[in-house]
Amino acid sequence: MLKQNGSRNRPPRRRALARPALDSAIPHRDDAAARLVAPPRRIVADDHPIALVRQNSLPMLVQRELERMILAGDLPAGSQLRENDVASMLGVSRGPIREAFRALEESGLVRLEKNRGVFVRQIGIEEADQIFELRAVLDEFAGRRAAQNATPLETTELRALVDRMEQAVGGGNVDGYHAANVAFHDRIVELAGNAKLTLLYRRLVNELHLHRRASLSQAGILPVSMREHRMIVDHIAQRQAAAAGRALYEHAMASRERVHDRVDRPARPRRVAR
């Protein structure tokens, strides 16, 4: 039966239940927006694998690991690197291995031979002589420019690297000395402010690495090298460009002579136990 207004009889409306206060039941709109805008606190360190993958491509990570193994002697000079073996060893596909091989060739650590494969570079003494001579010239240029450009803070950085070398010498840590030594010379080249020089210099250092490492292991060599490094820093700190360049040139040529001493020195005969 319709009422006069044409509507049917409807059941009485139920009284709406009281709603809880918005502030206590749901997040405030401003708080929710703040959570969307503010980034979460980072819990992954810079050296964590996730951070490394985020910052670097997989081929680059493979390249760095192979470079580390070559420079550490785990992959000796002259040895062949097979894609399948390296891929299995590192747990990656062959694609990143192939890209890493090309990058390592550009850096002077491996050679790619057509129809033969990839081999860790092996530098003969004659080639090493040529590289040392070229490096000495580059060192002299870098030393001059570093003495002109280096700030007191940057000079302090160089002294800190020399201190690290001295600590390694005191502890008989050849590996620690070598790492600080490479960082020291690389920093001087950076202070020269020439990107082309840095690229060429690092390739030469890679090629000479195994020779230099072997020569530094000789008894008595590390203290001599320490004195040479301190003299270099003193010249740079005093802005003596010509003296800094000359000291670096002589240091590189002395390294060449140390290599010759190691190669030319006849091996001592082994004693036969009686």
Describe the protein.
The chain is mostly helical and 274 residues long. It folds into 2 domains: 49-120, Arc Repressor Mutant, subunit A; 125-264, Up-down Bundle (Four Helix Bundle (Hemerythrin (Met), subunit A)), CATH 1.20.120. The protein is 66% helix and 4% strand. The protein has 12 helices and 3 strands, in the order ααααβααββαααααα. It has a 3-stranded antiparallel sheet with strand order 1-3-2. Helix 8 (152-170) runs antiparallel to helix 9 (174-191) and helix 9 runs antiparallel to helix 10 (195-216). The relative contact order is 0.09. The model is unreliable at 20-27 and 266-274 (pLDDT under 50).
Main sheet makeup: 3 strands, antiparallel
Evaluate the radius of gyration. 32 Å
Instruction: Tell me which CATH architecture of the largest domain applies here.
Output: Up-down Bundle
Mean pLDDT: 79
Strand tally = 3
Number of helices: 12
Within CATH, the superfamily of the largest domain carries the name GntR ligand-binding domain-like
What fold name stands as the CATH topology of the largest domain? Four Helix Bundle (Hemerythrin (Met), subunit A)
Distance between the termini: 129 Å
- Listing every helix as H and every strand as E from the N terminus to the C terminus, the arrangement reads HHHHEHHEEHHHHHH
Structural class: mainly alpha
Q: Could you name the CATH class of the largest domain?
A: Mainly Alpha
pLDDT under 50 segments (min length 5)?
20-27, 266-274
Adjacency order of strands in the biggest sheet? 1-3-2
